[in-house]
Amino acid sequence: MSAMNERRWNYERWVSEQKCAIVILNQPLNGRQCEAISRWWTSVHVRVCADGGSNRLFHELPQLTPDLIVGDLDSVEKDVLLEYQTRGVEVCETQDQNFTDFTKCLQVIAKRLPDIEIVLAFCISSGRLDQIMGNVNTLCNSEKFMRADIVLHAGDEITWILRKGRHRILTPESARGGYCGIIPIGRPVTVTSRGLKWDLNSTQLEFKELISTSNRAIADEIQIETTDDLLWTMTLKH
């Protein structure tokens, strides 16, 4: 690999070492997500629910209170909204239908807390394909209006964008030996990797040709060098 500047990723220290935000989307929360949310809730800088994500948080983790609810408010239950308002939660109603509630949450965070470094968005990675693709599109577009990295946290899987350049991903113990994927976005990319079961060596990836899915993270750290942005995803086994 070349000697260009390298970006390091350490999942187990994101919350403790970076200014972090949590966003709860209007998608089911599983047990692993609830455990992670509860563990990190008091350590992050801001906690935001995307419209109907308020329902998910209220019914799964009623003891937790967000700082902000953002969206067009067409999904949040009236009783849930009233309860959170009595707890002092700020409501930011945004009616622009050109953006998803997820994107609106990120826009509000970027405007109010521009020093946030990473956003953990709790969502699903299976079920409705349109929602999944909408979340991925938000990942791709987020750099237009905020500097923070956005991570999709599905409980048993985490996904984020690796921008053009060189990356070193410290593999959490729960991901070692698990599945991972390197997926090009929009245009062909040339990728070199180390630490995967099936490493890439200046391999071109593109849709309708070759993409790297169902690979495995077998080393303590994964090194990836890419000529353009790509989607990185890895499973958490426990």
UniProtKB/TrEMBL annotation:
SMART domains, per the entry: TPK_B1_binding
Transmembrane helix recorded as keyword: no
Organism listed in the record: Tropilaelaps mercedesae
CDD domains xrefs: TPK
Alphabetized UniProt keyword annotations: ATP-binding, Kinase, Nucleotide-binding, Transferase
Family matches, as SUPFAM superfamilies: Thiamin pyrophosphokinase, catalytic domain (SSF63999), Thiamin pyrophosphokinase, substrate-binding domain (SSF63862)
Residues of the Thiamin pyrophosphokinase thiamin-binding domain: 165-230
Keyword Nucleotide-binding: yes
Record-level Gene Ontology MF annotations: ATP binding; kinase activity; thiamine binding; thiamine diphosphokinase activity
GO biological process: thiamine diphosphate biosynthetic process; thiamine metabolic process
NCBIfam families: thi_PPkinase (TIGR01378)
The protein, known as: Thiamin pyrophosphokinase 1-like
Pfam families assigned to the protein according to its UniProt record, in alphabetical order: TPK_B1_binding, TPK_catalytic
Gene3D superfamilies per the UniProt record, alphabetical: Thiamin pyrophosphokinase, catalytic domain (3.40.50.10240), Thiamin pyrophosphokinase, thiamin-binding domain (2.60.120.320)
